[in-house]
Amino acid sequence: MRNHWYDNIKGVLVLLVVFGHLLTDVRGAYDDLLPKWVYLFLYMFHMPLFIMLSGYFFRENRYLRVIQLFVVYVIWQIILGSWFAFTEGIPLLSLENPGLNILKPYWALWYLMAIVIWYVITPYVTQLKGYVLYALLFALLFGFQEESTGFFALRKVIMFYPFFLIGNWMSERNTMNFFELPKRAEQRNRYRIGGAVVFTVLTLGLLASMSFQKEDTFYHVGNLFKFRFAYETAVPEAIWSGPFAFLIVYTVSTLMAVSFALIVPGRELPVFTRAGKYSLYVYLVHVFLIVAWKAFVPAGFMPTSWQQLLVLFGVACLIVLLIISPPAVRMLRPLVEIDVRRAQDVKDPKS
């Protein structure tokens, strides 16, 4: 039986992923700070929590799952990269077509590449005592490295890995098991209230502090939470303060992720529960739709930023509803839920 709480969390998060990707170009389309605030708010916790969920449910010796994810990644890298090449007028068979460069994940597909790599290395990493601290230290040191090739999405694979291991650590020790809300309503409500307080305080505290900063500070802080660049770019004014800044980011993101998870209801919520069940469908297909949206729709077509945000949130909801609709799921299933066991049986009929 599926865990409705887990599906609800994923459903909310994948909606925020779609909304966040729609907001990318809106930040520079208006003079006020609202789009920048909303964008920063989303990236403070939604991908860290997604990754912690993946780490929490990681299990060793799932080789077929690794193969399946890699095959899915390759297929969608070709599809989405080639679609981007088409919209940009790049010849499909050109070396400039990002879909043909399997080693450089296209846009959001870095997450699938990262999951494959994490699934392969985690059984060895977790043999170390204090493996979360080792991964965190390595990530903080890697921040000094000006790596810009994009191969294997290496920067994000390394910098986001501590979140994956935090989820795995909580699963192994059964401590802070926030994916199993208590059955008693009174205790469950206390957890939710505590989560809401922590989440609200951290959100308001960071956003309030950003109100006193220069406009370009939003860009730098946003990149800190996205782990996009090395310290030289992310913290240009004081490169040696980079590890301290990233340590704050890890702490804030972890606390916000855990507290947000506690807020999400555990009962079945038809739309969010279904969106969580088919979150991989949404994650893969929404990129295709957003590339098309950005190719034909201006970044700021509404008179005010708050109207633009409302419209884009509605668009994000429609995209999610479209992708998780039964006809769409049936059509997409062969490209998402690839049965590698069948291929194995064909290769070795005696097994």
Task: Spell out the key features of this protein.
351 residues, mainly alpha, 16 helices
Explain what the structure shows.
With 351 residues, this protein is an all-alpha fold. The protein has one domain. It has helices at 4-23, 34-43, 46-56, 63-87, 110-125, 131-142, 154-173, 185-210, 215-226, 231-234, 242-263, 270-277, 279-296, 305-324, 326-336, 340-347. The longest helix is centred in the middle third of the chain and has 26 residues, at 185-210. It is globular, with a radius of gyration of 20 Å. The two termini are 29 Å apart. The relative contact order is 0.17.
Rounded to the nearest angstrom, the distance between the terminal CA atoms is 29 Å
Largest sheet: none
* Cα shape: globular
Total number of strands: 0
Uncertain spans: none
Residue-averaged pLDDT, rounded?
86
Strand content: under 5%
What sequence of helices (H) and strands (E) makes up the elements? HHHHHHHHHHHHHHHH
Helix content: 55-70%
Count up the domains: 1
Gyration radius, rounded: 20 Å
The total of helices stands at 16
Protein structure class? mainly alpha
What's a concise summary of this model?
This protein has helices spanning 4-23, 34-43, 46-56, 63-87, 110-125, 131-142, 154-173, 185-210, 215-226, 231-234, 242-263, 270-277, 279-296, 305-324, 326-336, 340-347.
